[in-house]
Write a structure and sequence with these properties.
The chain is built from 7 helices and no strands. The protein is mainly alpha-helical. It has one domain. It starts with 8 loop residues before the first helix and ends with a helix. It holds the Pfam family MotA_ExbB.
């Protein structure tokens, strides 16, 4: 007697045990969620890099600092992170300089603190959702492995009522369980790749921000 089993991916998912199906559904949802953040982060970092390039080009072109400051304050909501850092430092510098009996060091310290606070806020915003991608990349394979182990246990428990166990009788159950591991890897691999890529891009932006802050403070130090 020949036993035929439909082992298409869809049938394996539909015939899996309830727990394994829940694991698969969770992993597919997490994968969809992570892909949403991957694309959002891609477009966000591309925009941030473009705005940073534009602002640095305008800043180092020799333009007037007051004009750059007015431009930044006029449309702060749509400005890039580096422009907002510049605006925070320049605003604090001008505010402290207006005070009586204020030396240059106090003005520079105020600008430095304001830019450092703005830098941290901007970096937190840029890194938003990045820890989620890291969690998906590290946890998803283990969640898939749990579904696989559970599915294999369920498949072998089903053999308790079978007098003669054959590979054909246990193979579908094992195949159903292994799909959970495959979905876990499908969710984890893009998240890990995206996390590593975006973390590297964010580190480069952070270095550019810090370099600009030091150079800008040197320029302010020469202001009369």
């Amino acid at each position: 007697m020949n036993v035929s089993h439909d082992i298409s991916i869809l049938s394996l998912i539909l015939n899996a045990s309830f727990v394994v199906q829940c694991v698969m559904a969770l992993l597919l949802l997490v994968s969809l969620w992570s892909w949403t953040y991957i694309f959002r982060k891609k477009f966000g970092l591309s925009r941030e890099k473009r705005l940073t390039d534009d602002f640095e080009r305008n800043f180092w072109s020799g333009g007037d600092l007051s004009a750059l400051y007015q431009k930044a304050t006029s449309d702060l909501q749509n400005a890039g992170s580096l422009e907002r850092i510049f605006e925070a430092g320049m605003r604090e510098f001008l505010k402290v300089r207006k005070l009586q009996n204020t030396d240059q060091g106090a003005c520079l310290d105020g600008a430095r603190r304001a830019m450092r606070a703005a830098y941290q806020r901007e970096l937190d915003e840029i890194e938003l959702h990045l820890p989620f991608l890291a969690s998906v990349g590290s946890v998803s394979p283990y969640v898939g492995l749990f579904g696989t182990v559970w599915g294999i246990m369920h498949a072998f428990r089903g053999l308790a009522n079978v007098q003669q166990a054959t590979l054909a009788s246990v193979a579908p159950g094992i195949a159903e369980a292994l799909v959970a591991t495959a979905i876990g890897l499908f969710a984890a691999i893009p998240a890990v790749v995206a996390y590593n890529r975006y973390a590297s891009q964010i580190d480069r932006l952070a270095i550019r921000f810090e370099s600009f802050m030091e150079e800008f403070l040197n320029i302010l130090q020469r202001q009369k």
